[in-house]
Design brief:
The protein is mostly helical. The protein has 23 helices and six strands. The chain folds into three domains: 190 residues, Growth Hormone, Chain: A, CATH 1.20.1250; 203 residues, MFS general substrate transporter like domains (Growth Hormone, Chain: A, Up-down Bundle); 81 residues, no CATH class. The chain is globular.
């Protein structure tokens, strides 16, 4: 008997998911890292981090109604990705202009373009899921298609890190924009997915699901997962790359792909955990993982950061996916769609926004670095730079450490380098290479005896000496003025231990309340629905 499903449907849908999250992965974590590295203010960084949340909140006002009632899903996807791709390419040019000219007014245009992209992109997540569920032969096999989205995210992050300069340049925005336009064209080849028409009901915010709050367990569940969502993804993705950059870890953007590698593993293993432990305990593990990862991030050691990143498998799969699964099980059939819409609106919209713009912004402002800028002179133009970053001090063990291969950009470039075709470039020495005369890993005040040039900026010995004295004082060090690399980085970094502590405490407080107050007992109406 011939199949009623379109030919090669799994392959086509898998490619759709790959490209969908390739786009988001290209800019999702890199944008705040680029902003931090380029000297954007805390407010500007957190606004950019809040872009997905604002898009998730605003876009249902017009996209949801149009997609449900008037346009086929694949055509709506094409339009939205064309708009989003154009905005991302425009944002890339704007980012280059802003850094090159220092024009603060251009940030308004950059943010506007990113917000327009967010409003175009965020509704496409629901649309690609809708297309997949409408055409996949077996809905239980959806994770095998959705997992290609995680692969797309990983590929996007690694490609931007290796070939496009990572978070140091806005090139990742061009990659995302091109990916958006490619997906827009590809969507025209997808199986036809006509709109649902008037039966959609227009409940884009899930307001009908508020009737379920009469059930005590449903109310406690929604409140708890919403509270944990505030210090979760929005907070984490906004601050992750800035922290990795400030602490001097290798290849910060490529490091973030560990989140998705862990997600691959735990997404596949989640059904086993649910069967063995029950959904409530799985969600509790997800809540605990968010708090635990932040405790690891409090420690400045690289190994602790790695553990915190790998915990993303528990954090995302067990908490977010677990929450969607619980709502799907507990909501009556006629309210499942509304309940999922409400949960997505709260977690990916309101919770994400409060975490990115609210909590992250407040914590960054209340925990500023002790000393982040100093005076310098731009060598090419001979113009003074009042608020230049402190000169770079590289890791002396980077060339021999096994982690050097994580810096995929340098590794690939070394493989591709052809000595015969390249001119010998003038070495760009860091601070220690120019001042650490005895090569003991410590720069004393006596060794700050000459002007240095790092990354095209000239720093005077007098200004450097003043900075060393201030750093020594701020770090409350004893003895003669001298600094090691770890201390040099610490004085320029936000107070990350304080930034991660309070969200961790918040996660554990909600977890304890959830464990004591939430009882996974459906109402009589829900039981009847399940029994039927």
């Amino acid at each position: 008997m011939p199949s009623s499903h379109p030919p090669l449907v799994r392959t086509r849908l898998s490619m759709m998911m790959f490209l969908e999250f390739f786009i988001w992965g290209s800019w999702g974590v890199a944008i705040t890292g680029y902003a931090a590295k380029s000297g954007f203010s805390t407010s500007e960084i957190t606004w950019l981090g809040a872009v997905p949340a604002i898009g998730a909140i605003v876009s249902p006002l017009f996209v949801g109604l149009i997609a449900d009632r008037f346009l086929a899903a694949q055509k709506m996807l094409c339009i939205l990705h064309l708009l989003g791709g154009a905005c991302l390419i425009g944002a890339g040019f704007c980012g280059k202009y802003m850094v090159e000219t220092g024009d603060p007014n251009s940030f308004t245009l950059l943010l506007t373009l990113m917000l327009l992209n967010g409003m175009a992109f965020m509704p496409t997540i629901a649309l690609v899921n809708s297309v997949a569920f409408r055409h996949i032969p077996d809905a239980d096999k959806f994770p095998r298609i959705a997992v290609l989205g995680t692969v797309g995210w990983i590929v996007a992050v690694l490609f931007a890190s290796v070939f496009l300069g990572g978070a140091a340049t806005p090139n990742f925005l061009f990659q995302a924009g091109v990916g958006g336009i490619l997906l827009a064209l590809y969507c025209l080849t997808l199986p036809d997915t006509p709109p649902k028409g008037a039966e959609a009901g227009g409940d884009v915010f899930g307001l009908k699901a508020f009737t379920l709050f009469k059930e005590r367990s449903f109310l406690i569940f929604i409140v708890c997962v919403f509270l944990v969502s505030i210090p979760a993804c929005g907070f984490f993705f906004t601050l992750m790359v800035p922290m990795l950059l400030q602490r001097g870890y290798p290849s910060p953007l490529a490091l973030t792909s560990l989140n998705q590698f862990a997600e691959l593993i735990f997404m596949f293993s989640m059904p086993w955990f649910v069967a063995k432990l029950g959904l409530k305990r799985v969600i509790m593990i997800g809540m605990a993982a968010w708090g635990l990862r932040y405790l690891f991030f409090m420690c400045p050691e690289f190994s602790s950061a790695l553990i915190g990143l790998v915990l993303h498998g528990f954090c995302y799969s067990f908490f977010y996916v677990g929450a969607y699964m619980w709502v799907d099980r507990r909501a009556p059939a006629e309210l499942k769609s509304s309940a999922q819409s409400l949960l997505a609106f709260l977690l990916l919209g309101v919770g994400y926004l409060l975490g990115a713009k609210g909590l992250a912004g407040v914590m960054m402002e209340q925990s500023p670095p002790d000393l982040a800028t100093m005076a310098a002179i731009e060598v090419e133009t001979d113009k003074p730079v009042k608020d230049a970053k402190l000169p770079r001090w590289d890791d002396p063990d980077a060339a021999t450490s096994a982690w050097r291969f994580l810096d995929l950009s340098s590794t690939v470039n070394n493989w591709l380098k052809k000595d015969d075709d390249q001119k010998e470039e003038e070495p760009n020495l860091d601070l220690a290479q120019q001042l650490d005369a005895d090569k003991d890993g410590t720069i004393t005040l006596a060794e700050v005896n000459k002007n240095v040039t790092v990354d095209g900026l000239l720093y005077s010995k007098e200004d450097l000496a003043a900075v060393f004295k201030t750093a020594h004082e701020k770090l409350e060090l004893e003895g003669d003025v001298a600094l090691i690399r770890k201390q040099w980085l610490a004085v320029q970094a936000n107070k990350w231990a304080r930034i991660w502590l309070w969200p961790a405490i918040g996660c554990f407080v909600v977890l304890i309340f959830f464990a004591l107050a939430f009882h996974d007992t459906p109402s009589e109406g829900t039981k009847a629905t399940e029994d039927s």
